[in-house]
Amino acid sequence: MYTQALDVMAKEGAPAAKPLRSAEELRLEEPLQQRFDARIDDGGFIEAKDWMPDDYRRTLVRQISQHAHSEIVGMLPEGNWVSRAPTLKRKAILLAKIQDEGGHGLYLYAAAETLGTSRDELLGALHSGKAKYSSIFNYPTLTWADVGVIGWLVDGAAIMNQVPLCRCSYAPYARAMIRICREESFHQRQGYDSLLVMMQNGTDAQRAMVQDAVNRWWWPSLMMFGPPDGESTHSAQSMRWGIKRISNDDLRQKFVDATVEQAKVLGVTMPDPDLKWNEERQHFDFGSIDWDEFWRVVGGEGPCNRERLGMRVKAWDDGAWVREAALAHAEKQAQRARQAAA
Ligand code: FAQ
Predict the structure, then answer these.
(1) Which residue, 116, 213, 297, 299, could crosslink 135 as a Cys pair with Cβ 3.0–4.6 Å?
(2) Residue of the nearest CA to atom 39 in ligand 1?
């Protein structure tokens, strides 16, 4: 069993954690640290029951929980279109996709729990606005084309970032990512397919709607990969630990290279006059990203931050009776089992 009983996060009101280990404790930890380092150097995996440095554990809880929050907040912009999908087929696809995102959130919360932090703590941090989730979900979904573009660009960027996480050194996270990536790939294709139908069989107005959605989502999609490598606070250590395998900028470049070709087939253009093939680099050059906008959105000042968080908190509050009923049912079952055994 995973070490779910461990509790490494400080609880509110609890006495402050002991800041330093004694010399004796450090001496005892030394061989454990060496074994951990050797396994990381060999490209091996760390399981929940294995010893790990506190900072490694904290980094994983931070990244996995931010990732889980992104999945469940990410359900909201698309949820907006369930009742307005143009056909029964598109509605069924959209519902399945949104359910998948909820499932991804659950796998990821479970992976974070293996590190000893409870789901209530993680959700509490999200609902109080303390925890981050991906900047991308703070943009509005104004037309039906936005749903297709989210699949194509947002899920596309998510896959590019998440495939290397299938080899993350923390095994429960890596295992969760394998299944998530398979599903994300269906999400990307359904988005692309929906846009292709509009571009090839649609009216001029529908084609213009797709182009407008691409114009609005392109730059925020590039921001999903995080700040430039030079400004990324966690990258160097996370790469050393084998949590991140490819840097923010390298993943962003891979995404641009792959997506520009897909845009040509679709018949849309990216809103970037500086986007052009660089023969020498064998990559596409692209214009500068508005990092002020990125940090504003991450800091809570994006177009939809308040609405998204408000919806999450409302869903949590509205669902309280379901959680209470499930607990009462579990208690009744346990009581019956105790009576039968007596
Ligand atoms: N948004 O030092 P770094 C999806 C923060 S899932 C907000 O580079 P790191 C599925 C970062 O947390 C999308 N904050 O950080 C879907 C840190 O702040 P902190 C989510 C961001 O962790 C599709 C600070 O900036 N995917 O889309 C962002 O090494 C469609 C410094 O940054 C994942 O979470 C951002 N974009 O690298 C669902 C994948 N970028 O914590 C529905 C796993 C950075 O110090 C519909 N995560 N920050 O306060 C990762 O790969 C990494 O965490 C990165 C950031 C690459 C996101």
Answers:
(1) 297
(2) 67
- Which 3-state string (H, E, C) describes 73-134? HCHHHHHCCHHHCCCHHHHHHHHHHHHHHHHHHHHHHHHHHCCCCCHHHHHHHHHCCCCCCC
- Assigned token pair, 147: 């749903």
CA 205 to chain centre: 33
In whole angstroms, give the CA distance from residue 2 to residue 119: 15
pLDDT tens digits for range 210-267: 999 999 999 999 999 999 999 999 999 999 999 999 999 999 999 999 999 999 999 9
Distance CA 248, CA 223 (A): 10
* Phi (first) and psi of residue 145, to 5 degrees: -65, -25
Place of tokens 């999908």: 85
Which amino acids bring their CB within 6 angstroms of ligand 1? 62-63, 66-67, 70-71, 74, 101, 132, 134-135, 150, 154-155, 158, 161-162, 223-227, 232-235, 238, 244, 248, 298
Locus of tokens 């009742």: 83
Report the residue among 232, 253, 312 best suited for mutation to probe ligand 1: largest number of ligand atoms under 8 A from its CB. 232
pTM, full prediction: 0.91
